[in-house]
Amino acid sequence: MTAKIINGTEIAKNIRHSLKEKISLLKTPPVLAVILAGSDPASEIYVKNKEKACHEVGITARTHKFSANVSEKELLDLLNDLNRAPDINGILVQLPLPAHINSEKILQAVSPAKDVDGFHPLNIGMLQQKSPDTFIPCTPKGIICLLHSLSLNLTGLNAIVIGRSQIVGLPVSNLLLQENCTVTVTHSKTKKLSALCRSADILIAALGKPEFITKEYIKPGAIIIDVGINRTPNGLKGDVNFKDALETAAYVTPVPGGVGPMTIAMLLENTYEAFLKQNRP
Ligand code: NAD
Q1: pLDDT, tens digit (0-9, with 9 covering 90-100), for 71-117
Q2: How far from the centroid of its chain's Cα atoms is residue 111's Cα?
Q3: Which are the catalytic amino acids?
Q4: Is 273 inside a domain boundary?
Q5: 120 falls within a domain
């Protein structure tokens, strides 16, 4: 079997195109405030990519850059201002924050109405309750979008998620349940992982270990979503051995060009949605 490649770049491009059209009809552009603290090279690249993507669809991105020794109070004061500023629709705090900053405290200080990353406890709770007022975290939302692009009936499928992080594993498990999948969440302490994974109709790999998922983990005909982004001496690698997935699965996302572009497209979508919610007549 040669798996079909799920082209995240193309799907994300279509979403951005449609957003650009909708945004061009607004009287004022949506505004996203981005907070970047420290000089982590990967974070700087992510923020640059987000700014560029915003610009391309007509969202104004305003980045607030701090040195690595910024105090918690400075960040909280800025968040307080941004939360109250009527012209700011979305707020994104680029993670990781410097080690001396309490990330939880910072994320909880973002107004839930502007929390376009969906990391505030109120939005996490509303996601559990399937409330339309929540913001769904961008990577999990993008993954579900990729699955929908296949136009398959997901009801009753056996979905296995590897990873239980707040950012990917837990929210995507929740969303898969909402799609009526039977969901198993696995993690670093899970026993007999490969045997479990071989029963998965949908396998979501979000563990952050380059090419960890090999043939023994893949059920023939499965849908494989590779969330991993691992910088290795041999370049950027996913969590899945792409060649093995191509030979065994029915569908697979590439790295790069799978989940990554969808994460950015969903950030743009969430910012547009925040604008609409805040400007409801
Ligand atoms: P994390 O480190 O917070 O969580 C990793 C999870 O994997 C943990 O729950 C851990 O228990 C589990 N795990 C680790 N080793 C394991 C093993 N050997 N077997 C089973 N489970 C294991 O990571 P994260 O933030 O959830 O990110 C996961 C990966 O996804 C990383 O590579 C990250 O760079 C990538 N990522 C990509 C995007 C994107 O847009 N494509 C977005 C977020 C994260």
Answers
A1: 999 999 999 999 999 999 999 999 999 999 999 999 999 999 999 99
A2: 19
A3: 50, 94, 117
A4: no
A5: no
